[in-house]
Amino acid sequence: MHAPAVSDMRAFLSNVFTYMTGALAITGVIAYVFGTSDSLMSLLINQETYGMTMFGLIVAFAPLVFVMIMSFSFQRLSSFALLMLFIAYSALMGMSLSTIILAYTASSIASTFFITAGTFGVMAFLGYTTKQDLTKFGSILFMALIGIVIAMVVNIFLGNGMLDIIISCLGVLIFTGLTAYDVQKLKRIGSGVEYGSESTNKLAIMGALNLYLDFVNLFLFLLRFFGDRR
Q: N or C terminus of the chain with fewer C-beta within 10 Å?
């Protein structure tokens, strides 16, 4: 790998992590603002029935729609449009995740966040430095992810506590592994692109979205273990 390619790759990864960190900051701030405001929380949850309001349901499902738009319209959208969608997505995720403040203590949420950040950082470093090709490993993880999504849907109806623990354990392992896999994949992408171009900026935003999803899902699965319920 020539020196210019190395510098372009590092600049690319720097952009990816900058976008990801910014998105997490937006999500965290909005989650805190909504979670600590009764008036804002009432927009999401009916205070009498404790069920989701219509706006709450929209907020819950809208992030999935945003991810699909960003993924399937990647070629047509400009990097600026993708960035705006990513920012809007991060804000919606903040509203959606604000409900965990009602379920878990603030101290356990904070401690779980730092555990997640440490785990994510170690696996990102591993993905960046390892010489082992993680491509096949990533394929297995994606299949396992589909499996636990199906299991989670099934367990909504079963309500099996043991299955929930198994799903949580697998979820932690899967997103820990995906972090290393995604960082290695982004390192390879960064080695073969022209830094500063429109297409490279778009790839950086989508890369940030992937890592953002890895981080948030890892956090939510770890919270099942380390979170203290109110």
A: N
Q: What is the pLDDT of residues 66-99, one digit of tens each?
A: 999 999 998 899 999 999 999 999 999 999 999 8
Task: Determine the Cα–Cα distance for residues 77 and 139; give it in Å rounded to an integer.
Answer: 28
- Distance from C-alpha of 92 to C-alpha of 210, rounded to nearest angstrom: 16
| Tens digits of residue pLDDT in 149-181 | 898 888 888 888 888 889 889 999 999 999 999
Burial class (CB in 10 A: 0-12, 13-18, 19+), 183: buried
Name the average pLDDT for the chain.
Answer: 89
d(CA 144, CA 215): 17
Domain extents for the chain? 3-226
Q: How far is CA 23 from the centre of its chain?
A: 10
Backbone angles phi, psi at 128, to 5 degrees: -75, -35
Question: DSSP string covering 9-65, please?
Answer: HHHHHHHHHHHHHHHHHHHHHHHHHHHT-HHHHTTTB-TTT-PBPHHHHHHHHHHHH
Q: What are phi and psi of 45, to 5 degrees?
A: -125, 130
pTM of the model: 0.91
